[in-house]
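Researcher: Going back to the complex we discussed earlier. I've cleaned up the inputs and rechecked each line, so this should be the final set. Can you rerun the prediction on the complete assembly and write out the structure?
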Amino acid sequence: MARIDLDLAHAYKPNPRGDEDYALLPLQMSFADGGAYALLGPSGCGKTTLLNIVSGLVKPSQGGVKFDGVDVTKRTPQQRNIAQVFQFPVIYDTMTVAENLAFPLRNRGVAPDRIARRVGQVAEMLELSGQLNQRAAGLAADAKQKISLGRGLVREDVSAVLFDEPLTVIDPHLKWQLRRKLKQIHHELRLTLIYVTHDQVEALTFAEQVVVMTRGRAVQIGTASELFDRPQHTFVGHFIGSPGMNFLPAQAAESGLEVAGHRLGVAPEATRGKGPLTLGVRPEYLRLAGAGSQGALPAVVMQAQDIGTYWLLTAQVAGGDSLVRARLSPHEAIPKVGETVWLTVLGPRTCFYGQDQQRVGETAP
Amino acid sequence: MKPVNQKAWLLILPVVLCVAFSAILPLMTVVNYSVQDIISPERRVFVGLDWFKSVLRDDDLQGALIRQIGFSFAVLVVEVPLGIALALSMPAKGWHASAVLVLVAVSLLIPWNVVGTIWQIYGRSDIGLFGAAIARLGINYSYTGSARDAWLTVLLMDVWHWTPLVALLCYAGLRAIPDAYYQAASIDGASKLAVFRYIQLPKLRGVLMIAVLLRFMDSFMIYTEPFVLTGGGPGNATTFLSQYLTQKAVGQFDLGPAAAFSLIYFLIILLLCFILYNWMQRVGTADKTEAGHG
Amino acid sequence: MELKLERVEQRVGAEAYLYPLDLTLVPRAVTVLLGATQAGKTTLMRVMAGLDAPSKGRVLADGEDVTGRPVRERNVAMVYQQFINYPSMTVAENIGSPLRLRGEKNVAARVKELAARLHIEPFLDRLPAELSGGQQQRVALARALAKNAPLMLLDEPLVNLDYKLREGLRDELSQLFASGQSTVVYATTEPTEALLLGGYTAVLDAGELLQYGPTADVFHRPASIRVARAFSDPPMNLFAGQAGAAGIALGGGVQLERTLAAAHSPTLTVGVRAGALHVEPHEGDLALPGKVELAEISGSDTFLHVATAIGELVAQLTGVHEFTLGAPVTLHLDPRQAYVFDASGDLLLAPERD
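Model: Rerun complete. Updated structure for the full complex:
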C-alpha cells in the first residue's frame, strides 16, 4: 500500500510549444494510501498515459512520480511493486489457474507452502477456488480477468493495483458482479486502487474520488456527488450523467436573468456583471411546473421515451432551437408529444459557467 | 451453409485444366509405369506389384531412405531453434528493422544451384574462404574425401540457405503478440527465459507448425544443392532419396522401379506430414478441450 | 421491406445455434435484437441478410421466398462492430461506392448530403485510418444509408466506442432511422439501449427467440423469467415463493399480498425490479428490513445492495444517497409492483401500467 504523488507533464515531442503537443498537461495529483480512484474521460484524453506513468511502463517527459515520498520515476513496474489489469485478459495459456496465480510469487522465490496458502486465499476471494486446476486458456472472459486481477492481489506487499478499462470485454450482467467484487476487495484489503475508464457508471460506483480528464487535462477531482451536483467545468456537466447536463445561453441584465430568450426573474448574485454565461441544469433536476411559474421556461415536447425506471423527455425551448432533456418519474403524468410544458430550470443545483467553461458560483437556494 | 454460386466453377476451370495437364496426367503416367516392365518402347509387360516389392527390398534404397531421414531430422533440430533465436534478436521497430529483414532474407533469394556452387567453392581448401580458414587452423577438412565432412557441409549449406525462412515466420509471429503480455510479465517479475517459455513460445505455436512442415517437406525432397555440392559423394554418403530416384530413372532408365518408388516416396511424405500436423494440432487444442466446462 | 422468418433453424454439426423460430419484422420500424453474447444475435442477422442459409425454414422478403438467395442479390445494408470501411478509398469514395455500383447520377451531391447528416463533411478527403473510431463508424453508417436498402442491419455498432460517444451517436441513429424508410434491425447486449431506441424488441437467449413485441411492452410484461433476466439492468431481484391463502410466502416469514386468479402451481418465483424498491414508506407497502451491504453511487442513481430476510436485494434509488456499510435500512415495496412467475418460469402477474 502506498501513497502516490504526481507532479509531471508528458509531451509527445521533446520541445513542446503549445497545448496540443502535450499528451498530459502539467498536473499535480495525490492518491492517498488505500484509496480507490478512477480516471474518467473520453478516448484520447490521456488517462491511459497517466496510468502507465504511474505504473512505470511510460516515463514522463517532465517531472516525476513519488511512492510514499520516494522518487520512483526511474524504477521499473516490477521495482515499484505495482499490479496492473489490462483491457483484455492477459493470462499464461500453458498454465492452470493455480499456476497463473502462483507465477508472481514463484518469480520472487517465495516458499512453496506460502505460495499455496496465498493462492488459496486469493482464489477464495475471487470465487475461483473450484477452477484452480483447470487450464486457464479455456475459461470465460470474466474468469480470465479475475485471474489477471488475482495475479496482482497475490503479492502481499503490492503498492497499488491499476486497472486499464478492465470490464471492456465483459457482458453487462457479469459487469455487475465484477464491480461488486472489486468494491468488496477494496473494502477488505484497503489497497490503493486506480481505475481507468470511459464509462461513468463504472467510475462513479467504484471510486471514492474521480478524476475527470479531457485532452490531457484533469478538469475536476471529486466524489461522485460533488461531480454530479457541483460540476466545476462544463465538460464535467456534460460527461457525467446519462444524459448529460442541459446547457442554455444565459445573461444577467438589469431586468433580470435572460435564459434562452426568456426572462426568469431576478438574476442571482453570482451571475451579475459577468457577461454572457451558460446555464447548466441536469435532466434529473428539471421539474414540470405550472404555466408561468417562477424560474420556469416553456418548451414543446419533441419526444417522450419510456426507459423502464424513468421517462426521458426531449423538449425544444419555445422561441429558439435549444433542446433540453428531463428525467421524469413513471408515477408523474407524462406529457404528450407536441404539448407545451413548463420546466423549472432555476433551482438549488443549477450552475452557471463563464466563457472559459469554468463555474461562476452557485444560485441562491 | 453458404448459398452456392455456380459461376465460381467457370472461373476456376482454366486452372483445373492446367493442373490436370501438368500434374494429374504425369501422375497417371507414373502409376502406369510402376505396374509395367518396359523392356523397350514396344514391349511392355504388366507385372502388378512386383516393382513395389523389389524396390522396398532394395538395400541401396533403404540406405538412401535412412540417410534422408537422418538429414531431415538434423535439419529440423538445427534450423528451428536457430530460426527462433534469430527472430528474437531481430529489431521490432524502426528503419533498422527493415534493413535487418532484407539482410536476413537475402540467402532465400539465391537460386538453389547457385547456392550449391557457392558452397562448392567456399568449402575448397585451396581457394575457398571457409575451407582455407579451416585448413589454416590445422583441421583436415575435405568434403570430397570424407563422408563426415561432406555431411557437415551439406547440413551447413542447408542451414545457411533456409534458416532465414524459419526466422522470418517466427518474426511475423512475434510481432503479432500484443504488448500487454510483455507488460504483464514485466509486472509479474518474470525473467526473460520465463517470458520466452510462457508467452512467446506458446503464441508461436501456429507459426512454428508451418515452419516445421515446410522445412520437413523441403528437406525430404532436397535435390539440387547436395547434387551440385557433392554429387552425392563421396561414394553415396550424401545420396539422398530424390537423387537416388533420379539415378535410377534417368541414369539407369529403370522406369518401372523408379515409378514405383516415386509413388512410395510421395506416400511417405504425405504420411509423415499428416502425423506431424495432427500431433501439433492436438497439442494446440488440448487447452481448449480440458477447461471447456469452467 | 417486410421480413418474415418461418420456422428458421440453424445447426452447425451437432450444435444448435438457433432453435426453430418464427419472426415477422414490422416494416419500416426499428427491431432490436437483445441478448447476451453468444445468444444467437449475429447468427440470426446473418440469416436475415442472406450471408448464411438456415438449416431449416424459410426467409420471406415482401412475400417472396429468398431463402437460398445469396446476399449479393438481396438489397441489404450492414454495419458491423469493427468500423469496416474500404481502407484504400477516401471517405467520399467509401460513401459513394454503393451509389456508383448502382450507376446513379449525382453521386458527389448525395455523398455531401449524407456526410453532412452524419457530421463528417470536413473529412471527405481523408482515409478511414486517419479518423477516430467514432468517425470511422459514421463513415460506415453513411455508406449503409447511401445504399438506401429496404433492410438495414446493425450488429452492435456502438460497442467499440466510448460511453459518451455512444450516447450521442445513438440519439443521432434514432433520428436517422425515424426519418428513413428502411426496416432496421439493431443487435445489442444492453437493455438500456433497447429502451432508448424504442421500436420493437426481440429477446434472444441461448439461440432461442423468447419474446417479440413493442419494446416497452416486452419490458413491462416479460413472458418468462428468462426474458426478465435478459431485459433488466440492473438484474431483476428474484425469489422463490409458495402460494398460500393470504398471498405468497417468501422466505424469512415475509408475505407478499397478491392474489392469483388462475390455477397455478404452488411454487412460484417473485420478481422485483430494482427501481420498484424505495426507502421512503408509502401506504400499503411491504417493509423489508435489512442491512446495507454495498452502496454504489452512479450520479443520477444510487444502487443499494441490502441483505434482507428473503435474500439479497438490489435497489435503484434516484439521486445521490450516502449509506454506511453494515447500517440497518428498510426497503419498501408496493406489492402491486411485483412480478409473479410460475414454476415453469412463465409470467402469471405483472404490475399494472398507468
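Model: Worth noting: The first strand of chain B starts at residue 36 and ends at 40.
Researcher: Good, that matches what I expected from the previous run.
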